[in-house]
Amino acid sequence: MKYDPDGKGFVKVADFDHLILDLMVEGCQLIPAKMWFKESEKARRNFIANLRIATYKKFKYYLFYDVILNLCRHKCSIKFLNFKIQNDFDRDKKQR
């Protein structure tokens, strides 16, 4: 209710940085739980930009559904990339 007091399904773009921090404090696995991330507004802004979440109502709101969907997509992309890098490394190591 803090970020959507009217229950309309939207969060203000201006409040999104605070939402990210609150999710991080709560231990949400979709948010990087690193101290530098918490302390760096620039890092959080880059993270938010990389999520590529659609905006609504003249670029002032995000839809909560889009937020969750894009956080999951981002986390899965990172996990897949790390898995692929490790597999490529293991394959190259065996070929030597």
Please describe what this structure looks like.
With 96 residues, the protein is mainly alpha-helical. The protein has one domain (10-95). It is 60% helix and 8% strand. It has a 3-stranded antiparallel β-sheet with strand order 1-3-2. Strand 2 and strand 3 form a beta hairpin. The chain is elongated and about 60 Å long. The termini are far apart.
Main sheet attributes: strand count, strand direction, barrel closure: 3 strands, antiparallel
Number of strands: 3
Low-pLDDT regions: none
Structural class by sheet pairing and helices:
mainly alpha
Distance between the termini: 57 Å
Main-sheet strand order equals 1-3-2
Helical run tally: 4
What is this structure, in a nutshell?
With 96 residues, the protein is mainly alpha-helical. 60% of the residues lie in helices and 8% in strands. It has a 3-stranded antiparallel beta sheet with strand order 1-3-2.
